[in-house]
Specification:
Length: 228
C-alpha cells in the first residue's frame, strides 16, 4: 500500500488491511513486515481484539482442515506420493483441462485438426524456444513436475507417425541470440511447421511487467522465417 501512496507507514497499512478484511500477509524475506505492527495497532486501539480474532480464526480453521495439528499418521495428505499425483485419473483430467482451455484464433483453409493418419510419412518441423524446453512451459506460481512427466511439443509430436525435425532457433524465451539457419534448415523442407513461441517467467512474472505485448527478442523474426 505504501507504493500506491494509500498509506504512509506499515502501521497504517496494517490497520487498513485488517479492518478491510485481510488476514494474511505475503512478505517472504522481510523481517519487519506489515503485520508485525498488529500488536501496536491493537494496543493503540486502531483495531479491536474481536477484529483480530475474526481474522485469525479462518487461518487456523484452514490449517486444521489440512491436518497440520494432527499426528502425521492421521493426516491423509501425508500418504500422497507421485503414484497418486500422476495416476491415470489425474492425468486424464489434466489432459481434458488442457484441451478445453485451448483457444483457436484462426483456422485458415481448415489446417486444424492435424490427423495422425494424414501425417503418415509427412515431414513435420517443430521450432521455437518453447518447442522442447520443459523449464519454460510453466507460468508464474506453477509447480514444476518431475521431468519424465513433462510433454514438450516436440516430445508429443514425435508420437505421431511423421518424420519430425526440431530447431529451437533461440535457446531461451528472451531470444537475444537467434540462429536463422537452424530454423530455415528445419522448416524449409517440412510439410507442416509448428512454431512454439511465448514469454515465460524469464520475460514476465509478478513484479516483472512488460512495456508492450510484442514477442520478445528475435521471436517475431523466427516466426517470419518459419513462414517463409
Amino acid at each position: 500500500l505504501l507504493g500506491h501512496h494509500y498509506t504512509r507507514t506499515f502501521l497504517e497499512t496494517a490497520v487498513a488491511s485488517m479492518n478491510a478484511g485481510c488476514n494474511l500477509e505475503l512478505s517472504y524475506g522481510m523481517r519487519n513486515n506489515v503485520f508485525m505492527h498488529v500488536p501496536q495497532a491493537l494496543a493503540m486501539g486502531n483495531i479491536t481484539l474481536q477484529t483480530l480474532r475474526d481474522r485469525v480464526r479462518p487461518l487456523f480453521y484452514t490449517r486444521m482442515r489440512l491436518g497440520e495439528f494432527d499426528p502425521p499418521a492421521m493426516n491423509p495428505y501425508s500418504t500422497l506420493n507421485m503414484s497418486t499425483v500422476q495416476s491415470p485419473e489425474h492425468r486424464n483430467l489434466s489432459l481434458e483441462a488442457a484441451v478445453k482451455s485451448f483457444v483457436l484464433l484462426k483456422n485458415v483453409q481448415g489446417t486444424l485438426p492435424l490427423r495422425a493418419q494424414d501425417l503418415a510419412g509427412k515431414r513435420l518441423a517443430v521450432v521455437g524456444p518453447f518447442a522442447d524446453n520443459p523449464r519454460v512451459l510453466f507460468g508464474d506460481y506453477a509447480p514444476v513436475p518431475e521431468p519424465q512427466h513433462i510433454y514438450t511439443p516436440r516430445r508429443g509430436l514425435e508420437m505421431l507417425p511423421a518424420n519430425v525435425t526440431f530447431a529451437a532457433g533461440c535457446r531461451e524465451p528472451p531470444c537475444q541470440q537467434y540462429s536463422r539457419a537452424e530454423v530455415v534448415r528445419a522448416a524449409g523442407t517440412a510439410d507442416v511447421v509448428v512454431v512454439c513461441l511465448g514469454t515465460g517467467v524469464d520475460v514476465e512474472t509478478e513484479a516483472k511487467d512488460r512495456r508492450d505485448l510484442s514477442l520478445p527478442g528475435h521471436q517475431l523474426e523466427l516466426l517470419q522465417d518459419a513462414v517463409k
